[in-house]
Amino acid sequence: MGPAESKLSVDIRAGAGADGLGIAQLIAQTWREQMGIKTARIVSAVILLGAATSTATAQEAWNITTMLPLTGPFTAVSPEMKSGMEIAVDEINAKGGIKGNKIKLTMLDTQSNPAQVATLIREACSDALIVAGPTLSNEARVAFPVAKSLECPAIASNAAAKGITTNSRPWAFAYATPAEILSPSSIELIVKKLKPKRAVVIVEKSDPSASDQGDVSAKSLKDNGVQVETFVANGNDVDFGPVVTRTAGASPDLVVIATIDKAAVGLIREMRKSQLKAAIMLTQSSLSGLVNALDAETIEGVYRYAEADPGSSSDPRVKQFVKAFQDRNSGKMPTFIAVATYDTISLISDMIQAADLSGKASDRSSDRKKFVEKLSGVKDWHGLAGTMSMSAEGFMVKPATVLVSHNGKLERVTAD
Amino acid sequence: MGTFVQQCINGLTIGCTYALVAVGFTLIFGVLRVVYLSHGAVLAASSYLGLYALAYSGSVLIAIATGIIGGALLGFIVEYMTVRPFRGQNHLIPMVATASVATIIQEVLRLTFQGGQPIAYPRAITSALYEWKFSEFRIYVTLGQITIALVAILLVVALNLAVKRSWMGRGIRSVADSEWVSSLLGVHVNAISAQTVALGSSLAGAAGVLLGLTVPAIDPHFGETLQFKALAITLFAGLGSVPGAVIGGIMLGLVEAFASGYLATSYRDLFAYVMMIVILSVRPAGLLGRQPAQRV
Amino acid sequence: MSEAALHSFVTLQLIFILAALAHYLPLSMRQLDVGIVGYFAVGAYVSAIFTRDYEMNFALALALGAIAAGIAALIVDSLATRVRLSGFAYAIFSLSFAEALRIILNNTSYVGGTAGFAGIPAETTLIQVSLIFLVVVFGFWLLDRTRLGALKTAIADDEFIVPIFGVPLVATKLVIFVLGGMLGGLAGGLYAHYVLYIRPDNFGFSLLIAIQLPIVFGGLDRFYGAIAGTLILGIVPELVRGLEQYRLIFTAAATVGVLIVRPSGLITFETISRARTSFRKLARGIHPNG
Question: Min CA distance, C115 vs chain A (Å)?
């Protein structure tokens, strides 16, 4: 009766699955022959530990699963998204949950890998009532067709790409408003206000969301009678001198930056250095905590549009959210990225309440149908980002907010 | 006219940045003759170290010094784990080992520092702007960019002297020519290998901190793109040739600046790869390199 | 894991094992052709274009994807062989091609550019992939027993001596490279029709690491090393629940660890011969360690 055997009996008592145990035993035995007893024991212990800790716990809770890139190349916005969701779940559970039962949020890591998304969406659809994910467009595109085939509701919080929900109705939804709707109204406003004759749009082609917003902005500018030139930048550049010098050479009155945050910061700084006289407008794709961390002098007079901006809102609920976020993130200011995930959870919670779902495992498919019907018909829902309604294509429509930085604070812009 | 001059300046400053990264890289490559893929990760790690040094001490010089020392130490550790044990074996193994270590370093950075979100260096004196106004146009450059250029030039001179005149330099040249013969002649190949990697990595460390001061933000992966460009430059200019790395770097910088400045191209990154393919097809030793003794 | 998720996991693992085997072919000859991600991408895109836009039969589209990838491998490798590139220069050469392809795809609006290629019809099933897997494994087993396999091992042992014995060096190498490319393209096509949405950035450096590390971890001596390595590094992080954040570190650390301790990888010639002897002894009723 060696140590390996006693480990086995401990796990039997802990209730590990019998099949996993048998296979593990067999593997352990064969490996023992080849790898040496010590290694085999360590490996067996590891495998059994895994089997033991994956015992399911039955609960009377609302199971919501989300998936986001916690590891891998796309992880930059994940901490904010995670935080937004956690705050929402904690607040709802502190008030007693939905219909007396708490929300159980499971977060899965997509590893920035579409193959993993394909597997996780199936797991999420079998474990959870509603899937609050994936969060990003690229991952949503992989997951939504699968969600549709499994008749499982899936809501993407930050996926603003064109047409991701189109082929997966009625099961797929997107909280984010796509660029086709956000950009034109914002561009119109800024054109009315500043009356530019020539404009330059700087696009980051390597990011689909930025690329989308850049293309739509350029088109809107043209539709509003402005002469437009488009140049390309890349966030990984060490120096934004070339593209800014070229921009300056085009003598624009307005520069629209449709890149992601690193490039936006680099471009703004470089433009200040080159003393470019044009007005600067940031598209939503450029915004993140990094841009908000710029000092007041650099960001002075820079315009931006977004679905929402928590920092400048006077809504007490938003202020409460900002405080909760800052408490958990060492004082960092949230952006609409976190607002989007918070609102998605709130929306799900409100819909569950409104559709009077039962929450029992046996009623799951009827619950899901009721949920999807309710969500498809949402009108004038009040989220942190404002009042919004669900479109027929499956994304939430909300008006864009155009803001400008003055003395380190953001103010709303109106056409005067 | 003003645009053209400014683009030249832009190209030169970008080029010096590339040169800085390429010099350390070419040293390591030229001596060890293995695909060393950890350079970018060491650069990123030193950049983070420099960030905290700057935040605590407020001095740019201390930050650079921290980057140099940190880079050297890290390089030493990486060499010990990934290059030394596999000397003389199939080239794939050190390539995979250095790639693995690079992954580990990047993941550790991601886990330690705010989940991989880009972090900006605090503003320092390197953002001080210098400008010259002419009647029609104005050109400008920052102190940080001037520093990078100066350091790059300094390095060429210093390293060239070191490699040609010093004891260590002799050992390095000997091992670069032939490891096997050097060991026969009593040169401690392992020691030379470690010293070279430490030296190259200290350069990566300096580059990391200087870059951190000039780019908008750093993240664990920002060394990767630079590493590939350094690879292209190294191959183009010849393995182990320090002046070649500097010249090659500046050339690439100018090409990229003019491509961005005058062509409507998002194919800009393609230049580096095409350059590598062409060079390897036509003259594998590079422009200024010597034909290495061939034995796979 | 639920049944559907397990299904998906196994399907994708098998696809990645096919890609690993495709990458293994050149590596087993000590030729550092790391263009696998490029061949994978070619197979994925070509077969997806044919099924989505030309409504072609799946098997035919897969075949075309594989052939296209094989041609790509032929181009890259014949150029490299002509110039007689050495070890690492080869690696950089092939990697440059793969990266150049990725940048070109990112800029080609017909295939969706950076936004990717969506709407691929769902064709790959677990049964298909399992069958293909079995056929491929059998093919590898067979390869080791044919003349081509023997030539391949000879080239791996000493490339420069081999022509003296009348071995058609370049022809053999190219055949193996093209086989590797075609298998990579096949795996890519299966992948595209399972994941249903592909972007050029999926086929970059992280995919290369994901395919290559497990092969080296598993051992380059025999093809079972590639299979075992990919399986172990793919499955263990799924079993140990707390490992999510550390998955990548685990893979990288395991690879470096194994390399330091056993540079030939987990499964070496020695392991295989010991396993065989133990097996034979067991069959004869003798205790293996006796």
Answer: 5
